[in-house]
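Amino acid chain:
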Amino acid sequence: MSERALARTGTLVLAGFALLWAVSGLHVAPAAARIPLLVAATVLTAIVLALGLTRPRPQVTRRLAASWMRRFNQVGAVQGLLIGGVCLVAIPTGHPRLIPTLVLAIVAAHFVPLVAILRQREYLGTALALALVAVGSLVSYVLGMPELAAAVASLGAAVVLWVTALVVTRPVMASSTSPETVSRV
C-alpha cells in the first residue's frame, strides 16, 4: 500500500477520533464554554487534517502482510466487543463514569498490535501516551473526582490522537538499502 494512502487514511481516522474524544469531554465544561470549546476542537481538527493531508509524500510502497486488512479488522472487532462489555458491566454496577477511562485503556491497548499490522512504530508511543492518560484518569476517579476523570480521559485522548495524526504524516524517505523499507525523517 502506498505511504501516501496510509498517511492520508491515518490522518482522517486519527483526527476524526480525536474530535469525537474532545466532544465527549465537553459535558464537564461549564455550559457557556461548550460551544466555544466545540468550535476550538473543530478548528484544531481542521488544522490537523489540512496539515496532514497536504504534506507532500513520496510514492513509496509499504509492504504489508497479505492478511493486514483481516488482522486490522479483527483488532477493531475485539476493541468494539471489549468496549461494549465495559458498558454492559459499568452501567448496571453503578460505575458509568468509569466508562471513558476504561474505554481509553482499551483504545491504548488496540494500538499495540497495529504497530506490527501497519508497520507503524509510532503507534507504540501513542499506546503509551494513551495508557498514561488512562492511568491519570483512573487516579482521578479513585480519588473521588469522576468528572475530572472523564475530562482527563476525553481531552487527553483527543490531544494524543491529534499529535499522532501529525506524526504519522511526517514525510518519509526510502532507505538506500531496500526499496521496501521506509524511514521517518
